[in-house]
UniProtKB/TrEMBL annotation:
Residue stretches making up the Radical SAM core domain: 121-322
Cofactor: [4Fe-4S] cluster
Record key words, sorted: 4Fe-4S, Iron, Iron-sulfur, Metal-binding, S-adenosyl-L-methionine
Domain of life: Eukaryota
Organism of provenance: Brachypodium distachyon (Purple false brome)
Listed name of the protein: Radical SAM core domain-containing protein
């Protein structure tokens, strides 16, 4: 007697999963130059339910898209706007049932002044995107850290956050400062950035920032030698980031100039002593500038001695934006 159960087909992928759609098009003998046209259609029609409306594709492309891809695999389920309308928080449900947040932040440059006069320009929108569901870092001050790690986002799921956000603002800048540690999902983050800096998005690489709380993870993953705390390995990982993502901004989470306090609020900092971090950043700064973030926690990182400790930790570095 034949079994009544049958295996279900694999879920369709996001059309923004660049490596996957390129491989499928290549296997079907379809030119990859059609892919940006598909992305442009979805970006201009973020609520489209299918891809049949994409103009001027080969017949084989339409059949492949119907069988293996969806315009977006995620769904915008809620949006909350601040009273001053400068911030919009988006709740996005993924295909696996989990949810992530993305945040649109707006700033009117005309509110600032330059040389005593109002600055020219207008409203600029920055999108803060997530790269993981949960996070392995376990930072004490971070709500995502209390979730533990659940899953990595695909490159398509990262890009889709901008597609959803485009309903609310024209995005000028993207920062990887949402849920998750971007460098723990390195391949997907790199692929997503390559999509965002190409057609049809055409974001300037200089307007994309990747924030990381730990460089050592990448060092151990990509170094030729498994040498914890080895400066050579750390520099190798930084060079890989620089090669894979030229002109992309790097923001490093220092959070405290004292190693004991860093370990209290960032358990992962135990694997990366402050001295090693400074050595790695000094080497990186020979080629590139970077952002350095610190944390203000009353009674912990806000103490009378902290400014002096911070200056002492950073004095061997060059120009910094903190």
């Amino acid at each position: 007697m034949a079994s009544s159960s049958s295996s279900s087909p694999p879920p369709r992928r996001s059309v923004f999963d660049a490596a996957y759609i390129r491989a499928e098009f290549d296997g079907a003998g379809i030119s990859p130059h059609f892919i940006p046209l598909i992305w442009k259609y979805v970006l201009q029609n973020p609520r489209c339910g299918d891809l049949d409306g994409v103009p001027s594709l080969p017949a084989a492309a339409y059949a492949l898209l119907r069988n293996k891809f969806r315009p977006t695999t995620s769904t915008l389920t809620a949006a909350a706007e601040s009273k001053d309308r400068t911030t919009t928080k988006l709740l996005i449900r993924l295909q696996n049932g989990e949810s992530v947040e993305a945040v649109v932040m707006r700033y009117d440059t005309r509110l600032g002044k330059y040389d005593g006069k109002p600055r020219p320009g207008g409203v600029r929108s920055t999108l803060c995107v997530s790269s993981q569901v949960g996070c392995k870092m376990g930072c004490r001050f971070c709500a995502t850290g209390t979730m533990g790690f659940k899953s990595n986002l695909s490159s398509g799921e990262i890009v889709e956050q901008l597609v959803h956000a485009s309903r609310y603002s024209q995005i000028r800048n993207v920062v990887f400062m949402g849920m998750g540690e971007p460098l723990n999902n390195y391949t997907a983050v790199v692929e997503a950035i390559h999509v965002l800096t190409g057609p049809p998005f055409q974001l300037s690489p200089k307007r994309i920032t990747v924030s990381t709380s730990l460089l050592l993870r990448l060092a151990l993953q990509y170094s030729r030698w498994f040498l914890p705390f080895c400066l050579v390995g750390i520099i190798h990982s930084i060079n890989k980031f620089n090669n894979d993502l030229p002109n992309i901004n790097l923001a490093v989470s220092l959070h405290a100039p004292d190693q004991d306090i860093r370990c209290q609020i960032m358990p992962a900092a135990r694997a990366f002593p402050l001295g090693k971090l400074m050595n790695a950043l000094q080497s990186y700064q020979n080629e590139r500038q970077f952002l350095l973030s610190t944390l203000c926690l009353m009674g912990l990182t806000i103490r009378s001695s902290m400014p002096t400790s911070l200056v002492n930790s950073l004095k061997r570095l060059k120009r910094l934006l903190i």
